[in-house]
Amino acid sequence: MKSMAKKMVIFTMVGIMQIGFGVSVMEASPLHDYYPPVQLYDGHDRDHMERERHERMERERHEREWIENERHEREMRRRDHESRREWRERQRIENERHDEAMRRIAHDFADSIFDR
């Protein structure tokens, strides 16, 4: 009986060792690696997205400035029915309004850049 128990323990240990060896070989084989490789995040995507956001905000700011400048240019022209005094007064008011609009555009752009 003693020899039978010894043989069973030995064969069990050999079987466990073979299973462990087989599993480690299977894990190391390239055929078993069917998952795509994981890309480590290095921040490039975030930098790229941030740069695109900044460029988009720049384009929007330039477009708003262009629209405001076109409007300002139209308003600064003298109208047929205006006297010189009325025209000068309208120009003064328009210049103040234009300066305020340009400050607002710059302020909105600065807020959007630093707003996260």
How is this structure best described in words?
78% of the residues lie in helices and 0% in strands. The chain is mainly α and 116 residues long. The protein has a domain at 52-78 and 88-115. Helix 2 (44-76) packs antiparallel against helix 3.
Percent strand equals under 5%
Overall average pLDDT: 84
- Kindly report how far apart the N and C termini lie: 77 Å
Number of strands: 0
Global outline: rod-shaped
Q: Uncertain segments of ≥5 residues (pLDDT<50)?
A: none
Q: Structural class per helix/strand content? A: mainly alpha
Succession of helices and strands: HHH
Largest sheet: none
Number of helices: 3
| Rounded Rg | 38 Å
Helix percent band = over 70%
Overview features:
single chain, about 120 residues
Q: What's this, in brief?
A:
Helices cover 78% and strands 0% of the residues.
Record the SSE blueprint:
Elements: H1 2-28, H2 44-76, H3 84-114
Helix pairs in contact: 2-3
